[in-house]
Amino acid sequence: MASMPNIDTLHFSEEPNVDTVPGPKSRSLLDQQVEIDSAAVAYPKRIPIALEEAKGATIRDVDGNTFLDFFAGIGVLNVGHSNPYVLEGTREQLGKITHTIDFPTEARLDLIEKLREIAPGGLAGSSNVVFGGPSGSDAIEGSIKLAKHNTGRHGLLAFEGAYHGATSGALSLTAGKKYKKGYTPLLSDVVHAPYPTVPTEQERDQALKAVRQKFEDPYGGTEDPAGIWVEPIQGEGGVVVPPEGFLKGLRKIADDNDALLIVDEIQTGLGRTGEWFGSDHFDVTPDAITMAKSLGGSGLPIGAMVYHEKFDTWDAGGHIGTFRGNTPAMVGGLRAIEYIEAHDLLAHATDVGEYLRGRFREVSEVTDRIVDVRGRGLFIGVEFVDESGEPDANVVKEIQTECFENGVLVWSAGRYGNVLRIIPPLVLTKKQAEVGSDIVCEGIQSVLKTR
Fold it and tell me: Which of 33, 60, 81, 180 has the most Cβ atoms closer than 10 angstroms to its Cβ?
């Protein structure tokens, strides 16, 4: 077994090195992509770059420009790009067997045992794991089946601001209208309750009251939901951290109404927030959690759901998927967890995340265009408004471009696209955090000066 290299050795460099972007080779490949790739391609329209290779928290394009990655493939590369400890395991597994459906393998059972060990709250040691398709959307589809199968009901409750995926059931739970346009109708009897966007008791209590009414008001309008789907911290909705007691309130409502509480940990899981799962911050035991993204360790696709063993009522084939036996991804997931443990990356993510939020708060103190800096661990959102106090997506786009041109890759979020989303790999070094935050803060100040 390979040694686990220190996080300081994983990267191309501690600082970006950028000449002209996009460079000529990138331009050529971007032009070719426009000609032959799908019109659904989105990311290169905001960040015009053609990728060559990546290590740790750094990415290199085809022109040799090196960037600090503050995006991690939408939170996929928690232990960094091309982590040697993870890659050694996945390469070895590729030489043995790759596609195993759901026959037992050491890779499968070892990952299940580890997930049972680190699962949030009372799920630890009392849970089962099911693999389905290779994405987070597939994991959500499995959770919908679980809730329906165990309650006999078909109604679903999610939240405004939510993003749960793009397949039919997951898209039904997703709140964003732009993702649904042209694809409705979707699942019936799906309702969306307010997600508390201000961390106050009043906001929390109003949101919980709205959820309870959907279950207990005889004129609530729909069948009682089979389950409640919630992100412990909303991602696409703008890195929104709910008030204390919100998830506990949902737990009580679910219990009172024989419904399942299903927590979507697809983006918040496996150390992103400084705990193994976002649920851990709120001392709540879900009935099930969905996972994907960083679960494959090195970007290999895998989706899974951990659920309380009392809900394991399926017959054989009750939830299936051709690619539910991706053993290299399972090895990658186990090794990523081992790497996080060995290098205490939960504490590291907490410390570096606090540092980054502190840097952005310093900028917010000298401008009224930043109305909030929030998040947990290395899951950070900076919210912008225009001079009249309205959400300002354009300023975030300009900051994103300014950062890209100076060597840092960031992205956006929020219901109105006005939140700068910072989600670097957990292996981001303190030096990279300093250098990268300098560039981002200077980019913010530069853009705001011109507006």
Answer: 81
Q: Both 335 and 365 in a single domain?
A: no
Q: Is residue 76 part of a domain?
A: no
**Which structural domain range is residue 434 located in?**
1-70+353-372+424-445
Distance CA 80, CA 297 (A): 9
Nearest CA to 407 out of 446, 384, 366, 436 is that of 436
- Measure the CA–CA gap between 189 and 83, rounded to whole angstroms: 44
Given a contact cutoff of 8 angstroms between Cβ atoms, the answer to whether 278 and 376 are in contact is yes
The candidate with the shortest Cα–Cα distance to 185, out of 197, 171, 165, is: 171
| Rounded CA separation 50/90 (Å) | 25
Supply the CATH number for residue 242's domain: 3.40.640.10
pTM score: 0.97
Helical ranges in 233-297 per DSSP H:
246-256
State the pLDDT at residue 11.
98
How many distinct structural domains can be found in the chain? Answer: 2
Q: Which has the closest alpha carbon to 101: 294, 315, 335, 320?
A: 320
- Whether the CB-CB separation of 435 and 15 falls below 8 Å is answered with yes
| Residue recorded with tokens 């939408």 | 74
- Residue 412 lies inside a defined structural domain of this protein: no
What interhelical angle do 327-342 and 106-118 show, nearest 10? 40
pLDDT band with cut points at 50, 70 and 90 for residue 221: confident
Residue 220 included in any domain: yes
Report the alpha-carbon distance of residue 337 to residue 302 in Å, rounded.
Answer: 15
Is residue 337 predicted with pLDDT exceeding 70?
yes
Place of tokens 């300098």: 438
Q: Indicate whether 284 pLDDT > 70.
A: yes
**Please, what is the Cα angle at 74 between 351 and 368, to 5 degrees?**
65
Picking from 228, 221, 295, 267, the residue whose alpha carbon sits closest to that of residue 375 is 267
Q: Count of residues for the chain?
A: 451
